Automatic annotation (TrEMBL):
PANTHER family: PQQA PEPTIDE CYCLASE, RADICAL SAM DOMAIN PROTEIN. InterPro entries: Aldolase_TIM, Radical_SAM_PqqE_MftC-like, rSAM, rSAM_sf. CDD domains: Radical_SAM. Residues 20-112 form the Radical SAM core domain. Signal peptide: none annotated. It comes from the Bacteria. Transmembrane segments: none annotated. The keyword Iron applies. It comes from Streptomyces sp. R11. Keywords: Iron, Iron-sulfur, Metal-binding, S-adenosyl-L-methionine. This is Radical SAM protein. Pfam families: Radical_SAM. One of its GO terms (molecular function) is catalytic activity.
Length: 287
């Protein structure tokens, strides 16, 4: 009996894209930031027009949602225009902000339909939170803006990254729930960027990278997620998303990432098909 060869797998375009639009950030997060972001970093070689073309292409090929991330995405000079363009393309939008400073016009933007917020929070104690962020006053500022987001009924998810032993992550989670945040999850620091304690490898990933998601760096490089930035698969600026996602390099990279059981550490909850913060498709970025 002749057995027909197995048909090649049909490439699947990720439904979710993380767009790392800047490396600039008011915080330094000296032991944590996966992107090595900071006050002196720039916005990369992707122009505002490049990002807009990318989002238009993404919507056409089947992407459903984008997450603006950095660095601090609200510091990009065309941040508002980029969010409005994403919405005009029919994409859902999430903004992953440190919520250190929020302009009045940005609150109006966050209140638009199909827009949600995500942020990171490290402790209910200011000294611990600021040990992670590297900036005095950041705890009070972020906490106040979390309260503001809840009061404005803006969909908000918060991720807590455990950076050092004894960190009050459980107390921080309880505080956030008491403030009215509905979605709070805890993850561990990954060996990427400033959190690197060894050469980053696929074993450092949660196992869901390239599974319905991808990330685009400030130079257009496409990776399985922002934490999988050491696995470049092509360039959206020079080649376009179609070429990348239907290319062999993307397929090979996706296949090389070890998949983990639903109960694997650092990628919860399992029942919502995503990583921290829950209900967003990306792993907890570390600010």
């Amino acid at each position: 009996m002749t057995i027909a060869p197995e048909a090649p797998a049909t490439p699947v375009v990720p439904a979710f894209l993380e767009l790392e639009i800047t490396g600039q950030c008011q915080l330094t997060c000296p032991a944590l930031c996966y992107a090595n972001a900071g006050p002196t970093e720039g916005h990369g070689s992707m122009s505002g027009d490049d990002w807009m073309r990318l989002m238009a292409e993404a919507a056409v090929i089947g992407v459903k949602k984008v997450q603006f991330i950095g660095g601090e995405p609200t510091l990009h000079p065309q941040f508002e225009a980029l969010v409005n363009h994403a919405l005009a393309c029919g994409l859902d939008v999430q903004v992953y902000s440190n919520l250190y400073r929020v302009r009045r016009q940005h609150w109006w933007l966050f209140e638009r339909p199909k827009v949600s917020l995500a942020t990171s929070y490290y402790s209910d104690v200011a000294q611990e939170h600021e040990r992670v962020t590297g900036r005095q006053g950041s705890h009070a500022a972020t906490r106040a803006n979390i309260v503001q987001a809840v009061q404005r009924r803006i969909p908000l998810q918060v991720g807590i990254v455990e950076v050092f032993e004894g960190q009050r992550t459980a107390a921080a989670r309880q505080e956030l729930l008491a403030l009215g945040v509905r979605t709070v999850n805890v993850d561990r620091v990954r060996s990427v960027g400033r959190g690197e304690i060894h050469v980053p490898s696929r074993a450092d990933l949660c196992g869901r990278c390239a599974d319905g998601r991808a990330a685009v760096m400030t130079d257009g490089t496409v990776t399985p997620c922002v934490l999988g930035r050491f696995l470049p698969t092509g360039n959206a600026k020079s080649d376009g998303l179609v070429t990348v996602f239907f290319g062999q390099r993307w397929a090979d990279t996706a296949a090389s990432i070890p998949r983990r059981p639903a109960s694997a550490d650092g990628c919860t909850p399992a029942d919502s098909n995503d990583c921290d913060p829950a209900n967003t498709e990306a792993c907890d970025p570390a600010y």
